[in-house]
Design goal:
The protein is of the alpha+beta class. It has 2 domains: 136 residues, Jelly Rolls (Sandwich); 105 residues, Arc Repressor Mutant, subunit A (Orthogonal Bundle), CATH 1.10.10.60. It is built from 12 helices and 5 strands. Strands 1-4-2-3-5 form a 5-stranded antiparallel beta sheet. A hairpin with a 5-residue loop joins strand 2 and strand 3.
Length: 253
């Protein structure tokens, strides 16, 4: 895949003045803040959110942003681990010198590959996965305590990843989490600025794009796999959110 085809999916930078997301709302962000006491503070930006805290030490930080379909291309267990990593806690602190050195090496490899004229999408995605697997391994060390509502957001997202193909009604998720549908939407609006329905629809679009590009499935077959009553209703939904019909999207990708 040529670099111009994926440059909007992945960005890494050391020269920035703010930590606002630089990709679409369907992206995740990580800010690696290398502190003067030799520790590493890692800040996570889940989908559709902003970073939770201001970071005063930006001159010693690295900002990484990537679209969620870079992880959706792999297995569901890995995707769930990533959702857990980004939504369970807003940040973690790594103090072990060898762990910090390992993370630095992977980050430098990502930077070198991203900046290379011959950068490879497969190589970048592989290095990103290596970095994520390191972070998943370290996730229980030094995490800050999450609030109750953040925990409910995490529960909703975890449930959605395994049930969105069959359950598109917010009542199912609210009942499973033991809150009212109204309260669930209030929490999601506060934390993610989206309702449960909007988040589920966003997930459907991401899955639809992935399957259209990576499989031989027809738009009609996909409509029913995603839980739509008809091909026409799915086509209207897809075109409204993507701008083109599913068949046109598949043809161009």
């Amino acid at each position: 895949m040529h670099k111009t085809d994926w440059k909007h999916k992945f960005q890494i930078s050391n020269n920035f003045k703010t930590i606002e997301g630089i990709l679409s709302g369907n992206s995740m962000g990580i800010c690696f803040e290398f502190k003067h006491d030799a520790s590493l503070c890692i800040h996570f930006k889940p989908l559709n959110e902003a970073f939770k805290v201001d970071i005063p030490n930006l001159e010693n930080a690295t900002l990484l942003n990537f679209e969620r379909d870079l992880i959706d291309e792999d297995d569901i267990e890995y995707a769930l681990d990533i959702m857990t990593l980004f939504n369970k806690y807003p940040q973690c602190v790594v103090t072990n010198a060898s762990e910090i050195e390992q993370l630095k090496k992977v980050i430098h490899l990502l930077e070198d590959e991203y900046q290379s004229d011959a950068a490879s999408y497969i190589m970048l995605k592989t290095l990103l996965k290596v970095l994520m697997l390191h972070l998943i391994r370290y996730q229980n060390d030094g995490f800050l305590e999450q609030d109750l509502n953040q925990k409910r957001v995490f529960q909703f997202l975890e449930l959605m990843e395994t049930h969105f193909l069959n359950e598109t009604n917010s009542n199912f998720y609210a009942e499973t989490i033991s809150v009212s549908s109204k309260r669930l939407n209030q929490i999601l609006k506060e934390k993610l600025n989206l309702t449960a329905k909007q988040i589920i629809q966003q997930r459907q679009i991401t899955e639809a794009k992935r399957r259209l590009v990576r499989s031989e499935i027809s738009p009609k077959e996909l409509a029913f796999e995603l839980g739509f009553d008809s091909h026409s209703s799915f086509s209207r939904f897809f075109k409204k959110n993507v701008g083109v019909s599913p068949s046109t999207f598949k043809k161009h990708h």
